[in-house]
């Protein structure tokens, strides 16, 4: 098996909000990048079909403004009787993802390009953290400790985040069941963080630039209201991790923020975890 590599899809824009759920078998809207549809197919298979999450919630306001990575396997076509199709990975460097448009132009005579894993990176600003003890955003409460300084009616500072510093958020990490155990989740997280460290300036444009790109969303609205300070991204990374994969993220250098507590989304317990990466060129 050759080395897998993630393919990069830059922020696809608001057209993806109209993507049918589940993905339709009819001709796709040409305004929606094929790579997004392929990433979504993995997410639907894992979160909707396997974990029974609500398909209506799978695409959200962060998808248009996020960077997405997809890992593909090359699946061989039909063979002679007694042989079966075998998956194979495309050659490439794990730390240098290809542009989705370039990848789609590659000739793959060995078979079909199959999306098997994906992740997304949401740039600053972010929406509020879920409240500890809440279920799908309902109920729960922030701790009332005197050291907890709220920056708004929704968020508080914790021992791991001052409530002001911009951060990126990784999410929608998913691998098809039959391809688990191959290290693709680690590959995606590592690739995404390496790319972010090289592209810090691209991850936090000013509000006016986001408006010009048509990337309106809850986080942008909060920044316009002055909830989030105008400062550059300094390498802070958050994941809202399912409790069952908390150990996986710890192995990649993330630490659980006890101040964020636990909450339930789609029937699954989540925790907040942080990590800081060193930015290339930072002084």
Task: Provide an overview of this structure.
- There is one protein chain.
- The chain starts with 5 loop residues before the first strand and ends in a 7-residue tail after the last strand.
- It is globular and about 50 Å long.
- A hairpin with a 2-residue loop joins β9 and β10 (268-276).
- The longest helix is centred in the first third of the chain and has 17 residues, at 34-50.
- Strands 1, 2, 3, 4, 5, 6, 7, 8, 9 and 10 form a ten-stranded mixed sheet that branches.
- It contains six helices and ten strands.
- It is α+β, with helices and mostly antiparallel strands.
Output the keywords.
10-stranded mixed β-sheet; alpha+beta; 6 helices; 283 residues; 10 strands
Brief sketch in words of this structure:
This protein has helices at 34-50, 100-105, 184-198, 207-212, 218-224, 246-250; strands at 6-9, 67-76, 87-89, 98-99, 111-122, 168-175, 236-242, 255-256, 262-265, 268-276.
Tally of strands = 10
Shape: globular
Number of separate helices:
6
Distance between the termini: 40 Å
Order of helices and strands: EHEEEHEEHHHEHEEE
- Radius of gyration from the alpha-carbon trace, in angstroms: 19 Å
Q: Roughly what percent helix?
A: 10-25%
Q: Could you list the spans in which at least 5 consecutive residues all have pLDDT below 50? A: 78-86, 90-95, 100-109, 145-154, 207-229
Give the averaged pLDDT, no decimals.
80
Secondary-structure-derived class = alpha+beta
Largest sheet: 10 strands, mixed
Beta-strand fraction estimate: 15-25%
